[in-house]
Amino acid sequence: MKKTLWKYLSFSSLLLPATAISCNVREAVGNTTYIKTFNHENFVKRNFLINNVKRVENDYESLLHSPLIKWSFNGKARYDSINNQFYQATSKYLTFNLAQRLKLYLKNDVILEFSNDSVNSSTNFTNSKSGIEQVFNSNDNNINSPLFFNSLKDAWKVEFDLRFDLPYVNNKGEKVNLNVNENDYWTSLQSKWDEVRLLFNNYGLKEPEKTDFNQSVSFELSDKNSNDSIENFLLNEIPNNLIFNPLPSNYENLFNGEYGKKVNQVYFTSPYVLHSNEFNKQIYLKNLNFASKKFVENNFKLNKIVFNFNPVPLDETTYQLQALEGFKQNLISEVDTRYLNYSQLNEINNLPALFNVTFATNIDSKSNPMKYFWNLDYLKNSDDEFTKKILFGIENSNEDKDNYFNIKRFQFRNILISLINPYSLIKLLDKTQYWNSLFPQATKLDGNDVDNYRDKVLFNYLDEINEIWTLFLTKDSLNKVNSYQFKENYEANILDLKESLKTKNFETLKKEFIELLNYFYELYQLNSTLKLNIDIPIFSNENTKEKNLYNEIAKIINSIDSRLNVSFFFADKNDKTNIFKYSTFIFDNSNFSSILTNFLFNNNDLTLLNNLILFRKNINVFKSINSLESASKNLNYIFDILDKYFDSSFWNQIFTNNILNDYLNSHKLDLNELRKKIISDLQTWSVRQQLDFINAFDYFIGSFVTNESYVQTNIYNREIIQIHFEKPLNDLGYTQYEDIDVIS
C-alpha cells in the first residue's frame, strides 16, 4: 500500500524536506499521532477556560470538553454514490463520561436508575439514508434502552452520580492532588449566571441552587406537573453545552488568581489535555488519568494530536499543494476536500480507497441557517459616509438609525441582495437546493391548530419558504419568484455563467436599481463620477471556487451602472466591522415559538429585536403601499404580543444587553418569565399565521442566500484520512477525537 501511494507524489521535494519522503515516514510520525493543518492563526491565546453557555463549535473546545454523559460514535460510514445511500453506517449511542449512573424521577413518583451504557457498537447497518444509526440495548438499567428514552418524556428530574476518584490533571496529564466534586458544577454555572438562568428557563427548568450539588448533580423542572420534560435538555444540552464541564470550586484562588490564563495554569478532566499552545502549533496528549479506564487502556485510540497553524495564511494555491503533498507523506492526517483544487479532487476521486475518503458533516439544526445580517453598527467602523447614507440612512456622525427602514433605502438593499439567482449560486457550489429562511429547516410549527396539519416541520413548506420577494416601487408590486423559476433560468443558461447567475427579471430589477441610484445621487447632490463602494464579506475560508464565483457576481452587479463598485472579500466570522456581520443563534429546542423568542431576546445578539424596533417606526409607510400591506400586517402580529408587556418607551431605544437589562429592571420585568409568556402567546397563533410571519420576517429583516444557505438534508463534507485511522461520521457538527480509532 505504501509503495502504491508514492506513485502519486509530485513536487514534494519543493515543499517538504527530502528526508520526509521515505517508506518509514509513517512510523516516524507514529500511528497514534493525528495531525491537522489550519491556514490561519491560532486564535487560542490567553484564556483557556471553556466554561461558557454555548455548544461546542471547534476542535479546541471538543478536545477539552468532558460532559457527564455524551453521544459516542463508532465505525466508518461508507457511501454508495450510485444509489445515493450508505451501505455501512456509523453507530450512535449514549455513554457515561464523568457520571457513572443517573436517576430519573418520573411524574408518577417512580424513580428509575440507569448505570450501564454497553451496546454492540459494531452492528452492521446497511442501506442507511443518513449514515448514522442509533443502537439500543434491551437491558432496562442501560441508558441506551427503550425504557430510558421512553421514560424521559415523563421525567421531571435527573440526578447524576459522579465516578469515584475523578482527578484533575495539568497540561502534562499529571494528577494535581485535586478531584472533581459535585460543587464544581455549581461553580461552573455560577461563572456565567445570567446566561445559565436564560438557558434553564428555555427548558422550563428550575434555576439551579447550591443544594442541587451537595451529593449529586441534579436538574429539575420548575413545575413538576407541567407538560414540559427534561428530554431535550438531557439529550442535547448536557452532552454538548460547555457550561456542563466542572470548574474547580477554588479556581479564583489558584495560581495567584491567574487560573486559566496560561496552558500550565489550568486543569483538565477531558480525554485529551492541551500540552502546549504556541502561535503556530497546539499539541494535545491522551489523558492517562481520564475517568474512563476503557478509553485509557485502549491502545487503538489516539495518543497525540497536533494542530499546525499558519500565522500568516498562505495563498490558496500553495496551501492546496502543501496540504495534499503533506497528506501523501503522512505529515498530515486529515484534509477537507472542499479546500482542494479540481485536479486534486480528480486524483482523489480516481483512488478513493487509497485516500481513505471519509464523510463528515457540520450540519447543525440547532442554529440559524442564514447567518449574514446587515450590520447596524457599521457606523462605528467605517469612514465611508456615502455608503452609510444610502445603505443605513446614517448622516455624518449622527447615530440615529430611524432612517434605516426608509422605503427607498429598504428597496435598495432588497434589490441589491436579489440580483443573483440563488438556485444558480448554490448549484455552482455543488449543493442541490437553496434555503431562504432564518429559521432552521427542522423548525416545528406549534400553532394552536397544528394537530390539523400533516406537515408540521418547516422543511415541508420548502416551495413557499424559497420564494424570493422583490419590491418594485414604481409599479407598486411585490414580485415573487419561486425555486422552479430560478431553476428554469439556470438550466436555460447553463452554458453561460454570467446569464445563469442573473436572477429572473434581471433587466427589470436593473432599471429599478438605476432609478434608486439616481434618487440618492440627487438627494445628496453627488457628482456622478463618485463611486458607491460596497465591500461585501464572505465568511468562509478562502478558496478558488468561491473566489471566482463571487468575482463574477461582482462583475454582474457593477455592469448595471458605472457608479457601482461592488466587491467581495473573505473575512473572519468574528469580524464585526463590515456592512454584514456573521451571527449565530443557538436554539434549545426546535419549536417555532421558542426559536422566535430566542431570536428577539438573545443575550449575545439583539440584532433582530433592534430590526423590529426600527421597522415599527416606519410600519405605517409600508402598510400604505398596497403590495406590502399584507406582509406588513403579518409582521405586525409580533407587535400585538410585545405591546402586552412593554410600554411605548421600549420602542424608542436601540438595545444592547446592558440597556435591555436596565429597561427590564426599571420596569420590574423578569426576562425569563417574559420569555415564557411570549412563547405561550406565540403558540396561540394558527400554523398559517406562523408561516405568514416567517415569510414576512425573512423579507423585511433582509435574509438572503449565501454560500451557506443550502438545504442540509443528507449533505456531507468529504475528507481524506490516513489509511490507518477510522473516523466515524457524527451529527454533532464537530469532531470527537476520542471516537477516532487506529486500525493498523
TrEMBL record:
Secretion signal span: 1-22
Record keywords: Signal
Domain of life: Bacteria
Signal among keywords: yes
NCBIfam families per record: ABC_Mplas_LP
Protein name as annotated: Lipoprotein
Species in which this protein is naturally found: Mycoplasmopsis columbina SF7
Upper lineage: Bacteria, Bacillati, Mycoplasmatota, Mycoplasmoidales, Metamycoplasmataceae
